[in-house]
Each structure stands twice: as C-alpha cells, then as structure tokens.
C-alpha cells in the first residue's frame, strides 16, 4: 500500500492571519509561507507525528467549539518555555514526566491551543 510520508501543511481560519503568522514565526520559529515558489516552505526536523481523531467532548481542546489543536516537538522544553514567558506568553508546564516525554500548553493570540512536546522513550529513539 502506498503511504503518505508526512503532513505537508496545517491550514486553519484566523481573524487576523498576518498577525497570527508573525506570532508563530516570532514566538515558535515556524516560518511563514514563502512569497514565491523559488523559496522553500518551513522544514521541520524528522521525528514522530501523532495524527488522531478525538472524541467530540474531549477536554484536550479546551473550548467545546474548538475543532483543532497543534502539538509542536521541541528539543528543550525548558528553554522554549523560558523563551515564551520572556515574551509574556503564559505557558503551563505539565509537572508529570510521561514515558513518551514532557508537555507544556499555551494559547496563540486567537485562543487556539498549542501543545509543546519534548519526546522521550521510543518517540525519542525513532522506529525500531
């Protein structure tokens, strides 16, 4: 069976797309889409990706009307949290260390949930 080899984009509605794009670039390092086809889009480091549907009443999303959330992998959760807090972004670090890593939660300027994940265990090592 032919398989996809990754996620090529995540598209979502925003009240102020330009502002939100700059926020993700300046706070998390997610490059904005290029202005020409001669420039490459943002490249992410190889690593694990979770793609899953969740129950309609899942508390993972916060607000009941929230339809999506994004989880970004990071190498150093503590450094990323410090950087974000230095820019006035409230971040909640989960105090528990899980077999698959550590997590922190924040919201972008439009209230969308963002999760940061520092992988551990099998997700840090890669496929067997």
UniProtKB/TrEMBL annotation:
Q: Which InterPro entries match?
A: Anthracycline_SecMetBiosynth, Glyas_Bleomycin-R_OHBP_Dase, Glyoxalase_6, VOC_core
| Superkingdom assignment | Bacteria
Q: Where is the VOC domain?
A: 6-119
Q: Which Pfam families match?
A: Glyoxalase_6 (PF18029)
Show the GO MF annotations.
Answer: dioxygenase activity
Q: Where is this region: Disordered?
A: 91-128
State whether keyword Cytoplasm applies. Answer: no
Entry keywords, A to Z: Dioxygenase, Oxidoreductase
Coiled-coil annotated spans: none
Task: Kindly give the PANTHER family that the UniProt entry links to this protein.
Answer: GLYOXALASE, GLYOXALASE-RELATED
The protein's name: Glyoxalase/bleomycin resistance protein/dioxygenase
């Amino acid at each position: 069976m032919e398989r996809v080899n990754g996620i090529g984009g995540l598209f979502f509605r925003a009240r102020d797309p330009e502002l939100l794009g700059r926020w993700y670039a300046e706070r998390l390092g997610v490059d904005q889409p290029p202005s020409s086809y001669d420039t490459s889009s943002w490249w992410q480091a190889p690593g694990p990706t979770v793609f899953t549907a969740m129950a309609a009443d899942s508390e993972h999303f916060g607000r009941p009307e929230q339809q999506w959330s994004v989880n970004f992998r990071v190498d150093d959760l503590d450094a990323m949290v410090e950087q974000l807090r230095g820019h006035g972004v409230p971040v909640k670090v989960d105090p528990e260390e899980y077999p698959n890593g550590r997590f922190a939660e924040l919201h972008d300027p439009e209230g969308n949930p963002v999760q940061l994940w520092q992988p551990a265990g099998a997700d840090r090592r890669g496929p067997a």
